[in-house]
């Protein structure tokens, strides 16, 4: 769903063979694969073993290692673990998992950046991503409607509205210098409601709600929240706008 965001950032920064990219929270590795296809050497870090397995299948397929992107690395853990895998300086750090919908998002990202920015060269680009204005993100209302009731309203992982300066605050806290921003349309489309529920649940955004209630109950609430976005043919379509900030290490 975030492919337009990745494409916009990589095009703007001219990602290519000269790029050494560190992807924070790389998930299943799609953004890394797109950068590698442009010639970049990529390293992805994440703490979710299941998603990292998918990333390895995409970037390091054992049955065709000779076709794997040169210099691709998948690391379980955080930025410090990436440093132990390769001490060379990165020219680009990306944090594409959008912040702004949960209490604690900014703090979690700031913690990742604290370990990642020392691994980047001076003047390296650091890309942060966030949800756009709530009124332009259909999925934001779905997240609020489905996750909110199951979570404490002001708890560590509870819902909170997106603020337009979220990314700038994180960059300032990390000692980064803002160097441009942009907005990208990233609609979420699914073949049917069941596919939408599975897709949204797989993001991890509903994990706290599942822990507080149960998966079946959260699924029911999510199905109800999706109702306004079901089209006559049964497909689900949610227009969204995401924002990115490009900052520089100093």
TrEMBL record:
Q: Where is the Methyltransferase type domain?
A: 22-63
Pfam families in UniProt: Methyltransf_11 (PF08241)
Name of protein: Methyltransferase type 11 domain-containing protein
State the organism of origin. Answer: Streptomyces virens
- Organism classification: Bacteria, Bacillati, Actinomycetota, Actinomycetes, Kitasatosporales
